[in-house]
Amino acid sequence: MAGKWRLTIDEGFCASHQLRNYNGKCEHLHGHNFGVSVEVEGSELDPAVEILVDFGELKRLAREAVDALDHAHLNDLPAFAERNPSSENIARHLYQGIREKLAALAPQARLVSVSVSEKGTSRATYLED
Questions:
Q1: Which of 14, 27, 64, 71 is flagged as catalytic?
Q2: 5-126, CATH topology level
Q3: Which of 11, 24, 26, 113 would bridge with 36, disulfide CB 3.0–4.6 Å?
Q4: Beta bridge pairs of residue 78
């Protein structure tokens, strides 16, 4: 049975949003310090260095993805013009932005999931089969 490695890095950003059609407090303009976790896995290490992905490079990819959201009003961004900027949709947006860049950086690694939290106690995770 072959083993796997799974790496997780954490990032974050600050932004405001409002959830359209929510019918509650979150329909009003408000902000969060969003937490973001990115998880990758693979069963082969880079043979020269014996790592799956350099943590610094993985953090750089995540930082590039969240920089476009940092200190923005998410509803004003093209990615959320029609979709609500919910934690679920933010996680999907970040996943899709990181996936291709990771494939180019480290073909031996696969993006497993991206999680977004608005508070330390709740998180939405996006993953694809």
A1: 71
A2: Tetrahydropterin Synthase; Chain A (3.30.479)
A3: 11
A4: none
